[in-house]
Amino acid sequence: MVSANTLCKKLLNVKSAVVEGADFYSDQDGVAHIRIKARPDRRHENDCPFCHRRCKRYDSQSGLPRIWRGLDWGGTLVEVECRTHRIECPVHGVLVADVPWAYLSNGFTKDFDLTVGWLATYLPRSTVSEYMRIDWETVGRCVHRTLNDIEPERSRRLDNLVNIGIDETSYKKGHKYITVIVNHDTNTVVWAAQGHGKGVLTQFYRQLTPQQLSSIRVVTGDGAK
Questions:
Q1: Do residues 189 and 180 touch, judged by C-beta distance below 8 A?
Q2: 112-141 pLDDT, tens per residue?
Q3: Please, where are the H alpha helices in the chain?
Q4: For the whole prediction, is pTM greater than 0.85?
Q5: Three-state SS for 55?
Q6: Largest CA distance in the chain
Q7: Of 46, 43, 44, 39, the residue nearest 21 (C-alpha)
Q8: CA nearest 165: which of 186, 145, 144?
Q9: Mind listing the pLDDT tens digit for each residue in 17-42?
Q10: What backbone torsions phi and psi does residue 149 show, to the nearest 5 degrees?
């Protein structure tokens, strides 16, 4: 039978971490929380968050505890607590040491960010915001952090395009436009950029290889010349 600390570590899905304990409490709104006290293991406690090399410790003592929001366990809100410290990287200088459960300078665990990013590929942002109990803008930041993990080869979106659509949409007052290219066959956005007109479309077509260009057969545009 596993211990409570081992169970918490398994549920957090982090191998290079040590769980030292956990506390349950309810906030003023009656929402249940579990706060897991964790730290990186000895092999990773002084890692640089950029190059992940093991570095010299800069602070003699740990600082104040930091809190990261994790994936909910049922209706229970999960938090990870850790006392952070600074390290001195020969390449990136003095900065806060990496923690294995979160991306750099972020208040959420990697599993939380990745879940939000995955949901956002299939659902409206407002739906993801309500389901994950975060605000609308936070959804966008989660997507930005996880983009390279969820879709490391984004250029593959442009492979095998046959029927595409072009839409120039005003997204802000003052004639702020964004040009969106969609794949009609998969009903997905494959490219987008700020601005509109021939210059933006030229930017899109220049990204295509001769093979990608040759596969396009139909181009639609709403009111375009």
A1: yes
A2: 999 999 999 889 999 999 999 999 999 999
A3: 4-12, 110-120, 125-132, 136-150, 198-206, 210-214
A4: no
A5: coil
A6: 70
A7: 39
A8: 186
A9: 999 999 999 999 898 999 999 999 99
A10: -85, -40
